[in-house]
Amino acid sequence: MTDAIEPAGPGPGPLADWELAERIARLVALRDQPKVSRAEVRHLRAELDDTTARADAIVREVTGLGAGLPPAGLRVVGRGAWLRGNLESIAWLVDPLAEQLMDRSDVNRALARKGLAIQLGVVFGYLATKVLGQYEVLLPDDAEPGRLTLVGPNLVELERGFLPEVGVTPAAFRTGVVLHELAHRLQFEAVGWMRPTLRGIVASYLSETRLDADRLRVIVDRLGDVLRSAREGVGLRQLVEAVLTPAQRELMDRAQGMMSLLEGHGNVVMDWGAQLLAERDPDGVQVAGVRHALNERRRRGADSVLFRVLGLSMKARQYSQGEQFILDIERRHGREMFNRVWDGPDRLPTPHELEHPDRWVARVLE
């Protein structure tokens, strides 16, 4: 393992034992990582660079966003690098709050740091086996722009075993994933208010965090059982709930419009981009089946387990609702009408407006 993650910024010390968190995450994530030759890695990176260049132009065209942005780039990493990057970002976010969280929760600090390390290591270790792509927005020190990252071993694993079953080529699948993640890049880099709005939501969420000493003690005492069950997603819900509070649930309800919009938009942009690619190059890469493949993966695979154990089944419904919201407005009022959602945070749809898009349109036109 590389050098330990350093505590982020000044303060009384880290909230979690980050070195332990990374060790545990690697135990969960790297045990069954597919073997990939150097030649395969080089080929994958070269193809994804080419795919990103083509998809970047398509995504800008179908969204009308990002005219002044530089060309999109991406990095292709292994599970270990994905883990390290995300743990570093979490450390940067939470370590400045360590004193406040420890005092508020009245927990033994050594126990809390160890318990949180186990919790974060297990959750991120499991996620590292499933994540295909990610647009990383909240980077240490508020670095901009964000970072488009694809997890190479997870793509390769799907291409070897799953894609042949659903009749989708690797080139098509990669194109679909890149289209979706590039939509997130435009949301955060071309819409000036989006990043600070997300930052505010995260800050509010963290400010409401409470550490549950009893649950953390159970996590520490049952480390062996936790690690064994983590590889299949069992028991992750209890780990996450060790820091979940009613106020945070209410906050996430208020953030529903934003989450639904961004994920729904990513799905819609993938479909818009696939349609445009098919029209311009009928003999080229056909992306039409990628959505079905992604949905089937979630339905039958560990992703669906992940949704259940993290309590995200409602979020999945919200994402579908956000997608339908966009399509309904486009069909009835045109894509330009929908694009007014980027005018400011007050244009985000409320949960009620997600169910009744015409009410959002009426409010925007007032």
Helix-strand string: HHEHHHEEHHHHHHHHHHHHHHH
Note the gap between the termini: 57 Å
- Order of adjacent strands in the largest pleated sheet: 1-3-2
Structural class: mainly alpha
Q: Strand portion, in percent?
A: under 5%
- How many E-type strands? 3
In DSSP terms, counting alpha (H) and pi (I) runs of 4 or more, how many helices? 20
Largest sheet: number of strands, sense, barrel closure: 3 strands, mixed
- Name the helicity range: 55-70%
Mean pLDDT: 82
- Provide the gyration radius in Å: 21 Å
- Are there runs of 5+ residues with pLDDT below 50, and where? 304-314
The shape is globular
SSE topology sketch:
Blueprint: H1 18-29, H2 38-63, E1 75-77, H3 79-94, H4 98-105, H5 109-128, E2 133-136, E3 147-151, H6 152-161, H7 163-166, H8 170-189, H9 194-207, H10 213-221, H11 223-230, H12 236-241, H13 246-254, H14 256-280, H15 290-300, H16 302-309, H17 313-333, H18 335-338, H19 351-355, H20 357-365
Parallel strand pairs: 1-3
Antiparallel strand pairs: 2-3
Helix pairs in contact: 1-3, 1-5, 2-8, 2-14, 3-5, 5-10, 5-11, 8-14, 9-13, 14-17, 15-16
In brief, what are we looking at here?
The protein is mainly alpha-helical and 366 residues long. The protein has 20 helices and three strands.
Relevant terms:
20 helices, 3% strand, 366 residues, mainly alpha, 3-stranded mixed beta sheet, single chain
